[in-house]
Amino acid sequence: MNIKEQHLDFKIKLNKIDSEQYRNLLVPEIDWLLNRATDLFIKITVFPRYNPIPGFEKTKRDTEDIKTLVVDNFVLKNPNVENNIYTFDLPEDYLYYVSSEAEIENNKCGIKKGRIIIRQHDDDFQNSPFDRSSYEWKIINAVFNENGIAVYSDNNFTVNKLFLNYIKKFPYIHNAEDFYNNTYTDLNGNVLTGTQDCILPEHTHSEIVDIAVLLATQNLQIPDYQIKLNKLKLN
Question: Of 10, 32, 85, 106, which has the highest C-beta tally within 10 A?
Fold first, then answer.
């Protein structure tokens, strides 16, 4: 679906058959609901907050649902180095971490690729002989902080690059073309013109509309909220 088709699908699903009972929702309001629904869809698909299985590729469907947002082997360079900690800036469109490797180097054995392990901040990994970063075992510890991703060396190697696999942000989908004067300003102060379609795979678009309709139904206190919720569960 393009954005115009999503708007039409939204209106049909929200309204009762042959009625326009809830026709007063404006284009920016429908756009906001569709973007909120897209964000929820991604979070549910990628890393549900209460799921014991790590990673987003739990099923083939999950992989297909999110494939257009996956960025592989994005190269991060020029880290800020302090006390054997190499901090890399994250890409501007970064949303969720998937995995990464690092290019590491020492004077004796040259360049290797090592696997990054994301640690908890309260772990004492660098002081443990079993958990600290190791050039020989090609295991490198890292944590996330406000500056990006901090990669730890044991003083026996340098970290040259990071090869990052991540899920990127989606562009704000909108149908500003069908609003007054073909434009509007979103809640972040961005002036929107024309249209922006959802970049997720086509087969997800109808389900995203279903989520948006559910959100609108809840906000408007429409009586058939439970019916719409049950329909969404069938997807």
Answer: 10
Q: Which of 101, 115, 97 is nearest to 55 (CA)?
A: 97
| Residue-level pLDDT at 18 | 39
- Residues 148 and 89: beta-carbon distance below 8 Å: yes
Contacts with 205 (C-beta within 8 Å, 6 or more apart), sequence order: 1, 5, 6, 9, 198
Rounded CA separation 172/31 (Å): 8
Give SS3 for 184: strand
Query: Across residues 18-43, what is the average pLDDT?
Result: 83
d(CA 152, CA 83): 9
One-letter amino acid for residue 54 of the chain: P
Cβ-based neighbour number of residue 138 at 10 Å: 14
pLDDT confidence of residue 225: 46
Find the helix or strand (DSSP H, E) in which 20 lies.
none
Mean pLDDT of 37-66: 76
Amino acid letter at 166? Y
Contact 221, 213 (CB under 8 A): no
Mean pLDDT, residues 59-63: 76
pLDDT of residue 227: 45
CB-neighbour burial class of residue 151 (10 A; exposed 0-12, middle 13-18, buried 19+): buried
Q: Which residue has the higher pLDDT, 76 or 128?
A: 76
- Structure tokens given for 196: 């922006």
E strand residue ranges, the chain: 70-76, 80-82, 85-88, 94-106, 110-118, 139-145, 148-152, 158-168, 183-185, 191-193
